[in-house]
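Shipment paperwork, digital attachment
Item: protein structure file
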Amino acid sequence: MGLRINDTVPDLKLETSQGEIASFHDWIGDSWAILFSHPKDFTPVCTTEFGAVAQLADEWAKRNTKVIGLSVDGVEEHKQWIADIEKYADAGVSFPIIADEDLEISKALDMLPAEAYLPDGRTANDSASVRVVFIIGPDKQLKLSMTYPMSVGRNFAEVLRALDALQATAGVPIATPANWTMGQDVIIGLGLDDAAAKAKFGEFDAVLPYLRKIKSPV
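Attachment content:
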């Protein structure tokens, strides 16, 4: 069974481009975390994606969010690849990249089936399903996951938008509508009837009996 929303992610020991992480949970600490994974170093789409994440370093920091990459190669390959990423993105790679040559981490996170292995002379297609984004809360629970095919580069502006929505609604009985961005109106949760909604939020706009909007609290 794969990881589902609100499951606690495994507390893994990780080898990374920045040294050993003895406990994934301890590394997350009181922060939010984003883990994004890749099937191979020195591949074109993955290089652009790592570059996009590097360019957003200030945005992750504003949101108290740590980012960590994963690629199914070793630490030394990662360190060499980082030079290409930084050249492409004109930005420093300040986050760690997990080494997963034996696929142990990818399997523990259900990115690959238990019987998966890397053949001699393998290509990215041999670990193609390792193209996942996990957003993890400070409670170490999975809050959102996205899985992409090999041919589609990830939109990290959307990852950032989703992170904003998760943080805005955490512990509050509200939800965000389609295409929501920071500052736009939000939706009152259906767990509150009109009286409770008014007591908590004040006046609201009842677009439909079940679709009630208020100004964003963030």
